[in-house]
Amino acid sequence: GRYVPARLVPAVCAAATLAALLPANVACLWSSRGAVGAGAVFAAALTASSFAFFLFAFQVHEKSVLFPCLAALLLPTALGPKRRPAWAPAALCHFAAACLYSMYPLIVKDKLHLPYALFAVLLIALFECLPAPPTLLRLFCRMSTAVGLVLHGVHAVLQAPARYPDAWTLLITGSSCGYFVLCFLALTAMQLSGWGLLGTDFADGTGGGGHPKKE
User: Fold this and answer.
1) Could you tell me if residue 210 is left (phi over 0), alpha (psi between -120 and 50 degrees) or otherwise beta?
2) CA 91 to centroid of chain Cα atoms
């Protein structure tokens, strides 16, 4: 490789994966489980571990994003009705839409445009209809949706430069990677902070059951 010798790439990927696994799994040992319960702590560690393997492991297939997607879907159930934020379903719908978007190059290869479009529209519509996430998170979700729509338009309308025939595909996979890295870092930060980043009422175990209105 240009930066890392090819013979060292598997070892570097293994080291990066183990390093990414460490914070979330260490948090299982010393974080306060009283705030969210052991089930939620485990589900969060499972999600973070899936992210670590998807983002840093050697030769990962696009469909491997389904592992962190499935693990993340366990979090609301693990948190329980008293501790689950009202906006969790909306956030998960957006996350599932991002997972779907990340597989778009594979969708194009298999000519599954219609099912892809139907599921993407459904997930974004659910995100908009369900109780809203906090303002900053809602803004991030809508901005990332806008970026995805723009890149879809570029992919559909403009011809990639002859010198870089995979440029549009790399933009889609690169933007997806950035989204997932931010999700991974946010989840790890929540675990290391004792889940206080979800709200002050959440940290003391009283839950996040309010239902903010859509703006």
Assistant:
1) beta
2) 10
What does the alpha-carbon distance between residue 54 and residue 61 come to, in Å, rounded to a whole number? 8
Q: How far apart are CA 80 and CA 206, in angstroms?
A: 12
Contact 63, 23 (CB under 8 A): no
pTM equals: 0.85
Which run of H or of E encompasses 17? helix 9-30
Helical axes 38-56 vs 9-30, angle rounded to 10°: 170
Q: What is the pLDDT of residues 144-191, one digit of tens each?
A: 999 999 999 999 899 999 999 999 999 999 999 999 999 999 998 888
DSSP 91: H
